Amino acid sequence: MTEQEKTNHYFVDEAGDLTFFDRKGRTIVGEPGASKFFMVGVAQIFQPEKVILELAELRKQLCCDPRFKDIPSMQPSANKTAITFHAKDDHQDVRMEVFKLMQTFEIKMYIAIRYKAELAVATQKTYETLSKKTNQDDIYDDLVKRLFKDRLHKANINHIVFARRGKTAREEALQQAINQAKKNFETKWKISSDSTTIIKPAYPSEYAGLQVVDYYLWALQRLYERQEDKYFMPLAQKYRMIMDLDDRRNKNYGEWYTDSNPLSLDKLKWFVG
Predict the structure, then answer these.
(1) Rounded distance, CA 59 to CA 65, Å?
(2) Cβ burial, residue 69 (10 Å; 0-12/13-18/19+)
(3) Is residue 45 within 8 Å of residue 9, measured between CB atoms?
(4) How many CA atoms lie within 13 Å of 28's alpha carbon, on the beta-carbon side?
(5) CB-based contacts of 134: which residues, under 8 Å, 6+ apart?
(6) CB neighbour list of residue 188: distance below 8 Å, 6 or more residues apart
(7) Among residues 105, 95, 110, 6, which one has the least CA distance to residue 49?
(8) Which of 214, 266, 232 shows the shortest CA–CA distance to 88?
(9) What are the C-alpha distances in Å from 231 to residues 102, 160, 236?
(10) CA 40 – CA 235 distance, rounded (Å)
(11) Which CATH class is domain 3-46+106-271?
(12) Does the predicted model carry a pTM greater than 0.85?
């Protein structure tokens, strides 16, 4: 396959939430019901058909396994594991089987992270200065632009499946974010990209790739939120870039974790003391 014929497949999801304040305007970041971090992840999957077939086969095996027959999340009526894998909802033993399979997939993970305590301060300043509330979609779209800026010129066709956020598809806004990512790349490198980008908002039950990015985000989220690396470490080589945008101890644009600067639990001590 030539470079001109190449098609890349990307799947996008988020972890954490964008809740900053309670009804009285008090900051509740890190308290029950409000995460410390918000992250958007992109999984580039090289054999999406293989992922579909193997996750479906694993689900079939697990649903027939007598060990799980009485687990509520495994019942078809629950619309959870029997329909789609979701790391937060899946039983621990199921989760381990899914992680084991996902380690065999040929994928690359790219993730952008915001520290919500920093976002809360910026949100408050914006409101006090401009009497304007920060739009949560703007934060999400900004991370999408950052993640795709250096990706879209690498193939002739880019298929991007976004996990739906709430009830709206937001196709136009997502297309604008992708277009801006292309422009940002051109501005930086003076190289224009004429690749075709096909965007599809969807539910995880519709695309197995969304189940993959969900699991990888969950593992990283546990590392950041709970300082627990047992899920992250077996997958660590698949995370090709993690942009920690609010860790400015060394650089004003944040800390980027790659092969030359691998992420570890010790490097996250900056926000837990």
Answers:
(1) 10
(2) exposed
(3) yes
(4) 14
(5) 119, 122, 123, 126, 127
(6) 149
(7) 105
(8) 214
(9) 12, 26, 9
(10) 17
(11) alpha beta
(12) yes
Residues 118-173 pLDDT 10s: 999 989 888 888 888 889 999 999 999 999 999 998 999 999 999 998 777 788 88
Which amino acid does the sequence have at 73? S
H helix or E strand, kind and range, residue 54: helix 48-63
- Distance separating alpha carbons of residues 109 and 190, to the nearest angstrom: 26
User: Largest Cα–Cα distance of the chain, in whole Å?
Assistant: 60
- The two structure tokens encoding residue 17: 């939430």
Is there a contact between 91 and 66 (Cβ–Cβ < 8 Å)?
A: no
Q: What angle do CA 44, 107, 250 make, to 5 degrees?
A: 80
Strand ranges of the sheet holding 37-45, from the earlier edge strand across to the other edge: 196-202, 157-163, 7-16, 37-45, 107-115, 239-244, 255-257
Question: For residues 137 and 71, is the Cβ–Cβ distance under 8 A?
Answer: no
Domain borders along the chain are: 3-46+106-271, 48-102
